[in-house]
Design brief:
This protein is mainly α. The chain folds into two domains: 1-50; 56-95. Helices cover 84% and strands 0% of the residues. The chain has four helices and no strands. It has helices at 2-17, 22-49, 51-55, 57-87. The longest helix is centred in the C-terminal third of the chain and has 31 residues, at 57-87. The termini are far apart.
Length: 95
């Protein structure tokens, strides 16, 4: 857990120092996207190697679907509430 916090802090510190470097920031989205894809690939390969997960995939898949739908619905509701509370101009509807 300490290493996660350390890397988060180091990333924030690095981001603070490169915030004015436009040439680096242009490529940062691509690097982030490729990093997320690599992490998803590695996660998938570790799940595929685990025989317990593969044998119980039908049960785990239903639970994962329920959790995913609940997480997306909860995020949408909270995002809408935060938007209406903090960002929407009172009395002015954008249509």
């Amino acid at each position: 857990m300490n290493s996660v916090i350390l890397f988060l802090f180091l990333g924030a510190l690095l981001g603070y120092f490169i915030r004015e470097k436009k040439n680096i920031l242009r490529h940062l989205d691509k690097v982030t996207f490729c990093s997320v894809l690599a992490l998803l690939f590695l996660l998938g390969s570790s799940v595929g190697r685990n025989p317990v997960i593969i044998m119980n995939l039908h049960n785990l898949g239903i639970q994962a679907l329920i959790l995913s739908v609940a997480a997306v619905a909860g995020s949408a509701v909270i995002s809408l509430a935060v938007y209406r509370l903090f960002f929407k101009d009172n009395g002015i509807d954008e249509k």
